[in-house]
UniProtKB/TrEMBL annotation:
Coiled-coil annotated residue ranges, if any: none
Name of this chain's protein: Glycosyltransferase
Database matches in InterPro entries: Glyco_trans_2-like, Nucleotide-diphossugar_trans
Species annotation: Cohnella endophytica
UniProt GO MF annotations: glycosyltransferase activity
Glycosyltransferase 2-like domain mapped to chain residues: 24-185
Signal peptide: none
Family, similarity comment: Belongs to the glycosyltransferase 2 family.
The keyword Glycosyltransferase is assigned to this record: yes
Keywords: Glycosyltransferase, Transferase
Length: 374
């Protein structure tokens, strides 16, 4: 049996020629001809060479498909899947269907990974005997920001709850790209990305995966490079505003609460509810900031749905302002179920938000017809 670079046995795995194939690196590709070479090269440069690279061309209209085919013709361990444009979730699902590795790793085609990422994650998942490894990442835009947390092993329920309430853990769960997954768990539980969502597709997928984990390990190393681009640089960089996003946040909390509430302390449960309620307040103000995407009637109905939701009612009972600058009026109106005054208030607060923070002029709305999560 072959050995990996850490000197420990590689275990079962699959074979690609003489190479023991352990990790499948899945890269969805859509109109990223300017960046995809860098992404692929970073996957090829991994110090842990027991991997396959699966490129899923999601109906690109630029030269991305040709670039993918060029690499596949040069490197036998690269596979290319060409499909009609179905979105990043469907592309990742297609990659998982084709994957043969014991572990799954995701990489976006406009990002790159450090050369030791795969090796570090594989070593950690074996050393800790856990079902998920989460590492740090760096945001590279106009400013550079490292996102990381102290190395630690968590029981799954505790990690999910603390990731929802702890500022330094939460950003680590916003993407599936800074993680290493076990293929067996994905297959046994038929876990998929929900392609009906344009935004937030990672969250529900990871929640379902983590709920099947025994333990989760946070690795205090920055190994993933997440690039933020000017929208002129690429088509898929356009920021979407989706009215469904708020419904998705509530759906996410419903599922999270149903998984962990019976396994965590009352104090941590209250922290979760308060964090959720704070997110509801922020979401309402954000709706006011982008009120042009709603008719007056639609905005009123959405606000009514939110403030009457059982989990919002439950959270409103334990919510406390953590800062003097936090709104006192919005929580009061939610508790009193005063939808119309709340609509007027969030429109006013939304205008102030835009003045203070600006509005991304390139944002476009995405509507999902005949679908309601509330």
């Amino acid at each position: 049996m072959a050995s990996n670079s850490t000197g420990s046995p590689t275990g079962s795995g699959y074979r690609w020629g003489k190479i023991v194939l352990l990790v499948s690196i899945i890269i969805p590709v859509y109109n990223t001809e300017k960046f995809v070479r860098r992404s692929i090269e970073s996957a090829l440069a991994q110090t842990y060479s027991a991997n396959e690279i699966i490129l899923v061309n999601d109906g690109s209209t630029d030269r991305s498909p040709q670039i993918c085919d060029e690499y596949a013709s040069t490197y036998p361990r690269i596979t290319v899947i060409h499909q009609l444009n179905k979105g990043v979730s469907a592309a990742r699902n297609a990659g998982m269907d084709a994957a043969r590795g014991e572990f799954i790793q995701f990489l976006d085609s406009d990002d790159e990974i450090e050369s030791t990422m795969t090796e570090s994650l594989v070593h950690a998942i074996r050393e800790q005997d856990c079902d998920l490894v989460v590492c740090g990442y760096v945001n590279r835009g106009k400013t550079v920001q490292e996102i990381r947390a102290d190395s630690n092993v968590y029981e799954a329920s505790e990690f999910m709850a603390r990731a929802y309430t702890t500022p330094n853990l939460a950003p680590l769960t916003w993407s599936s790209c800074n993680m290493l997954f076990r293929s067996l768990i994905l297959r046994d539980h038929k876990l998929r990305f929900d392609s009906s969502f344009v935004m937030g597709e990672d969250g529900l997928f990871m929640l379902e995966y983590m709920s099947r984990c025994r333990s989760i390990y946070v690795l205090n190393r920055v190994l993933y490079n997440y690039y933020q681009y000017d929208p002129a640089d690429r088509v898929s960089a356009i920021t979407y505003f989706s009215p469904d996003l708020y419904s998705l946040r509530i759906k996410y909390f419903e599922r999270l609460y149903s998984i962990v509430s019976s396994e965590i302390s009352q104090d941590l449960e209250r922290q979760m509810l308060r964090s959720f309620f704070n997110l509801v307040i922020i979401s309402l103000v954000y709706m006011g900031a982008y009120a042009e995407f709603f008719t007056n009637r639609d905005l009123l109905q959405r606000v009514k749905s939110i403030i009457n939701h059982p989990y919002v009612r439950k959270a409103s009972k334990v919510y406390k302002r953590s800062r003097k600058t936090d709104s006192a009026i919005i929580p009061r109106l939610i508790r009193m179920r005063m939808a119309m005054p709340l609509v007027l208030l969030i429109r006013s607060r939304g205008k102030k938000f835009v003045v203070r923070n600006g509005k991304r002029q390139h944002i476009r709305s995405v509507y999902r017809e005949n679908r309601s999560l509330l």
